[in-house]
Structures are given as C-alpha cells and as structure tokens.
Write a structure and sequence with these properties.
The structure holds two protein chains of two kinds. Chain A is mainly alpha-helical. Helices cover 35% and strands 4% of the residues of chain A. Chain A is flat, with a radius of gyration of 23 Å. By secondary structure, chain B is an alpha/beta fold. In chain B, strands 1-3-2-4-6-5-10-11-9-7-8 form an eleven-stranded mixed β-sheet, sandwiched between helices. The chains are: A mainly alpha, B alpha/beta.
C-alpha cells in the first residue's frame, strides 16, 4: 500500500511537524515501504486474542495523601525558553 | 595492568586494600578518555572536575572506614537518563541546553552507592536507532574497528566500556538497545525484566518497553550494577515491588549448570543471521552443555511478527511521549506568531530524520480509521509473542540465541534504508515485547576480528538464573578478557 503525498502531509499536520517538500517525498517512500512490510500481520487471525498493552499485569497504585516537597518554580523555569512573572511565556493564543 | 583496565570488582578490591585511591583511579580513567575518546567519540559530555571532586570525598570516606562494591567506581551514564545539574540531551537538538532539576532514580542509586559519574554517553536520538548514527551530534565509533558502528542506541555506553573509558555504564533497552551494542562491542549488557529498575528520570521513548540496563566488562560487574539500581520506586508506578536478590552473591551458588534446560529456538538460526554468528553461538551452546546443561530445540512461532509489532507499538507510544517537545517548557524554541506555528517549527527543526519518521509512523498507526488495523492488531500479536515465551518457559529455563544478526557493520551502510536498520534488532525486540529479561555476553569473534554476542533470555524476574548461566560460561571461556587495540 502506497501513502499519497496528501496523507503524509495530513500525518505531519496531526503530529505538528513542519516538513520540507523533500522530507515529505522521502517519508512517502519510506513509510510506504515500512507499512508494506507490516502487511504480514494480516496473515494472522487475531479475532479472539485480547490485546496486550503492557507485559505486566496492570494495577492501580495508591499512596498516602501526604504533601511532599515539589521541584521549585525556579528550577523548572530555569529550563524555559522564555518566562515572565513566574510563568512560561508563549505567543498569544487569543487575538 | 593499568588502572583503567580494571573491572569494577577488581577496582573495588584495590580501593579497599588501599592499593590506590579513588582519585588515582579517576585520574587514570580521565587520562584514558583523553587519549582515546577522540577516536571512539563515546561521550557527549564529560565532567572531569566534578568526578575528581567526588573522588576526593570518596577517599575521605574510605579513610573513615566506609566500603561498598561501587564506592569510588567511575561510571558513565547514557544521555537519556536525567542527571541533576548536568546537561541531558537525548542526542537531540530539541533538548540542547536542558539541565534536569533531578536525577533519574537509577543514577541516584548509583551515586548513593558511592559511584562516580564521569559524564554522559552518546546515543541515537531519543534512543531510536541501532548504530548511534541517529545522534544529532556525532556518530560513535566501534573500538574494535573505528570504521564501524558500535551498535545502538546505547552505543556510547558500550564503546566507553569496551575502550576502558569507564568501568561500567548505564544504558537503556527498548528493543535491544543495551544488548545489541554490548554484542557489537564485545562487552556484557543486561536488560532487566520490565519493572525491575525504575524508569523515573529515564526520558520516555516507548513506555511499555523501556527499561534501564547495565553495560559492564564482565558478568560479575553486571550483577553488581544491577543489584545497585534495582528495586521498587514510588515515583514509577510500573516498578516492581519485588525483593532485590543479591545478584553478585548468587553467581556462583548452586550446582553450576547441572541439568539446566536450555531452549534453542529454531527461528533464531535462519537465513539472514550471519553464518559466522550462528557458528559462534552454536559453539557457546555446546560449551554450556559441556558444563552440565541440556539443550533442546524449541519454537517461538511468532518470531517473524515481532518486528512489525515492535515498530507499530514503539512509534505509537513515542508519538504520544514526544508530544511534550513543543518549545514551551524546555529545550529548543523556534519563534513563530502563533503557538501552533511555534510547535510545528520547533519540532520540524529540533527533531532528526529518524525521530520524525517514528513519530509519523506512530501518529498514522493511532489515527482514525487505522487504529484497529495497525495499533490494536499489533497489541493482539504482542499477546501471541508473549504466549510463545510463556509456553517455552514451561519446558526450558533459559533460552539461548544470537543477539544481533551480524557483527558490527560499517558506518553509513544502513543509513539510507530504515527497514534494514530496523532488522538489526530483530533478535532482541521480542524480549521487550514479552517483558522478559536478557543478557548479551561475548562468545567469540568473526574472521574480521569483530566480537559476537550470545543472548541468554529468562522469564520475568529470572535475572539470577541468566546471570548464573552467563557467569558459568564466562568462567569457562576467555572472550570477555580480550580488549580492542586502541
């Protein structure tokens, strides 16, 4: 199965990735080849097989509701590309 | 013998006996790094001053009577594990300049045991790759042949151990990223059971498969490191609340390999697996039989489906995990007029080709109309792969296979063909999908003089068993003591 350029652009849009034209064309070829290889999964009948999300049995993990020492605001904002008044700064979301 | 050539257990004995100080040991390693790292390029970041300062404080502790298997031992950390106050890049431009405010639990446990951190080792970007060629910074070179890859994604850690640029290292293994580079560099690499080691502070790639592992010069050292990093962590709800055995003490316990049932899956000795690799691994299995084990041909019938299952599940999880790199809270930001434009531009420029490829693949597999055909289908086949192992472990105690279909390949040989690169992990990824543990250890050399690895797989929480088997093999052979001429 071959992905169309439109489909590749749609995936990139969903993933919030700016791609150049050359990249879009490259991923069209490569992803198509990879998906074709994956077709072999269709050989298997899995109708009654439950899915596995994790190799371990999942369980709810609870802890005592006790306050701890969080990472300081300064330490977190230290890594921010831009911050102002103790908050992350981003381009305007609303007009 | 120079100090940098020592194993962890040898160095620990020497420190305890005051034959040399931790400062002398660290100085020797730093000298070794200075003389060979321009060839191997194993490290992304070095912290010589901090290491020496730490060594001086360890020397004071030793003088005060303290001791421990990792006290004063210089180690390297793969650069996908957070280190407090020390840049952590994941081999990516998108995290350049990121300085974590906390340590990964595995790192914190090593430090608490008195280990000395030398620096951060190179990796494929976000641990996505099998050669370190996907690092945004540079490619690491295999110490056995500098024109070849060290494997990946923990290639920097494996090369650093092989080249005596550290005594041991942490790596991470999502589909083979500790075992495959260990095999290609001729060192020991252990991927513990999923949940054995906390993933807190391990920057996520594929959360249902990621596991911290250890790379070491021999099996004893791997046991020592595993013992130090294992155990429950309230900060990782998937970490197992199971007691941590004394892995090192367990190595020589019991009756050797007497009556140990070893399974040899026929699907792992097929066309595509280099005949020289097969010959070395078969000879290693013969050696295990000579040591008292019995070998039994078994079948893991869904082996052929592991690659598509892995490359649907891991990218799907990655596409969600890597959504956090949006230029807001840390790392690279490419300015734009709107937040959405900023996300697109930041991610488009900050991620490398393989990371984008996997994000796209995962996004597609999870997208409306394709979820059932790809992601759900892969999760169902994962059930079948796990069931293969469960059935096999009813019959045998350990499974023995090759680690990598080939020995180290030339730099650039597979970079244009992602599918060929993906096949490098075809013999290791099932272990992650099923949640088993596995160890890679040296079992020979091919005609080009490149190391071959033997993989021993155990069921969940059977680390003692695979370590003991590996230790018995290592005691009877001398592959592990060979070192590259650098």
């Amino acid at each position: 199965m071959k992905l169309t350029l439109d489909e590749v652009e749609h995936i990139a849009e969903l993933a919030r990735l700016d791609l150049s034209q050359a990249e879009t064309a490259m991923y069209q070829e490569q992803l198509s080849a990879i998906l074709e290889y994956f077709e072999r999964l269709r050989q298997l009948s899995t109708e009654d097989i439950p899915p596995t999300a994790t190799a371990l049995p999942l369980r709810s993990v609870m802890r005592e509701d006790v306050a701890g020492q969080p990472t300081s605001r300064e330490d977190i904002l230290h890594n921010a590309p831009a911050d102002e008044e103790g908050c992350f700064e981003v381009p305007a979301v609303l007009e | 013998m120079s100090l940098h050539q020592l194993t962890i257990h040898e160095a620990s004995r020497g420190l305890a006996a005051r034959e040399f100080s931790a400062t002398e040991l660290v100085e020797a390693i730093l000298e070794r790094i200075t003389s060979v790292d321009n060839e191997t390029k194993a490290y992304l970041t070095l912290t010589p001053e901090a290491a020496l300062e730490c060594a001086r404080s360890v020397d004071a502790s030793i003088a005060a009577g303290e001791s421990g298997p990792l006290l004063g031992i210089p180690l390297a950390i793969k650069d996908v594990l957070c280190t407090k106050g020390l840049a952590t890049t994941c081999g990516s431009r998108i995290l350049e300049g990121f300085v974590p405010p906390y340590n990964a639990t595995a790192v914190a446990r090593l430090r608490a045991a008195g280990a000395i951190i030398l620096g951060k080792t190179n990796t494929d970007e976000f641990a996505m790759g099998s050669s370190t060629e996907n690092s945004a910074f540079f490619t690491t070179h295999n110490p056995w042949d500098l024109d070849r890859v060290p494997g990946g994604s923990s290639g920097g850690s494996a090369a650093a151990v092989a080249a005596d640029e550290c005594l041991g290292a942490l790596g991470t293994d999502t589909g083979g990223s500790v075992r495959q580079p260990a095999s290609l560099c001729g060192v020991v690499g252990l991927k513990p059971t999923y949940g054995r080691v906390s993933r807190y502070g391990l920057i996520a790639y594929a959360s249902s498969l990621d596991q911290v592992g250890v790379l070491a010069k021999d099996v004893t050292d791997a046991a020592i490191m595993l013992e130090a990093v294992s155990g429950h962590d309230p900060r990782d709800s998937t970490s197992l609340d199971a007691p941590v055995p004394q892995y090192e003490a367990a190595l020589a316990q019991g009756d050797g390999l007497k009556c140990l049932r070893i399974g040899v899956p026929k699907e792992y000795f097929v066309e595509g697996v280099d005949p020289e690799v097969q010959t070395s691994v078969r000879a290693a299995i013969d050696k295990l039989v000579e040591l008292g084990a019995t070998a039994h041909e078994i079948s893991l019938p869904h082996t052929d489906y592991a690659l598509p299952v892995y490359y649907l599940i891991a990218p799907a999880e990655a596409s969600a995990n890597l959504a956090r790199y949006d230029g807001v809270r840390y790392g690279l930001r490419v300015d734009a007029d709107s937040p959405i434009e900023m996300y697109r531009a930041t991610r488009g420029q900050g991620f490398g080709a393989e990371v984008k490829r996997r994000i796209m693949l995962g996004t597609y597999a999870l997208s409306a109309g394709y979820y059932d055909a790809y992601y759900l289908k892969a999760q169902k086949v994962r059930t079948l792969i796990k069931a293969d192992f469960d059935a096999a472990f009813d019959e045998v105690e350990v499974i023995a296979t090759p680690v990598s279909p080939t020995t180290a390949f030339h730099i650039g040989a597979k970079t244009d063909d992602p599918l060929q690169m993906y096949l490098s992990d075809v013999l290791t990824m099932s272990v992650n999908l099923a949640g088993n543990c596995g160890i890679s250890l040296p079992c020979g050399f091919d005609q080009a003089g490149l190391p071959v690895g033997l993989q021993l797989i155990g069921p969940a929480l059977a680390e003692e068993r695979i370590l003991r088997t590996a230790f018995a093999y290592e005691q009877a052979t001398d592959w592990h003591s060979r070192r590259p001429a650098l």
